[in-house]
Amino acid sequence: MFLVLMSFGLLPGTFAWPAGIGDIIVGAYAPFVVLAISRRTPGWHKHVVLLNVLGLLDFVGAIGGGVLSGRSPIGILRGTVTTDIMQELPLSMIPTFAVPFWIVLHIISLIKLRNPKTAAEESAA
């Protein structure tokens, strides 16, 4: 979505590229991780950790690109196109609700993965 908005001149590339490519990578990898979990393939635990880390890194790139491309004093990458559209509904729901929600889910997943036997027992119950 960010790359499409960039193509229409509504978002800067300094935000859209890291956010869009990161979302694509995480989104494309997720079904394979779900398949590995469901089949209990060897190493599924590592794939889940990697997916969560990639998801969190995606947010770091997206948030960083958004802040640096915005109208704030630290918007050193700001150009003629800014991230102002992300402050208007419905897109404002992404940084105010969706991003914090997914960050919390990634962290919860990583915490639960610290003991994979317990996580597997809870999911089986």
Walkthrough of the structure:
This protein has 125 residues and is mainly alpha-helical. Helices cover 70% and strands 0% of the residues. The chain has helices at residues 2-7, 13-39, 44-68, 93-112, 116-124. The longest helix has 27 residues, at 13-39. The model has no long low-confidence stretch (mean pLDDT 90).
What is the element layout, followed by pairings?
Layout: H1 2-7, H2 13-39, H3 44-68, H4 93-112, H5 116-124
Helix pairs in contact: 2-3, 3-4
Radius of gyration from the alpha-carbon trace, in angstroms: 17 Å
Helix-strand pattern: HHHHH
Mean model confidence by pLDDT: 90
How much helix, percentage-wise, in residues? 55-70%
* Number of self-contained structural domains: 1
Helix segment tally: 5
**Principal-axis shape:** elongated
Secondary structure tally: strands? 0
The low-confidence parts are none
Strand % is under 5%
Largest sheet: none
Terminal CA distance reads 37 Å
* Helix/sheet category: mainly alpha
What's the short story on this structure?
This protein has helices at residues 2-7, 13-39, 44-68, 93-112, 116-124.
What characteristics describe this protein?
125 residues, mainly alpha, 70% helix
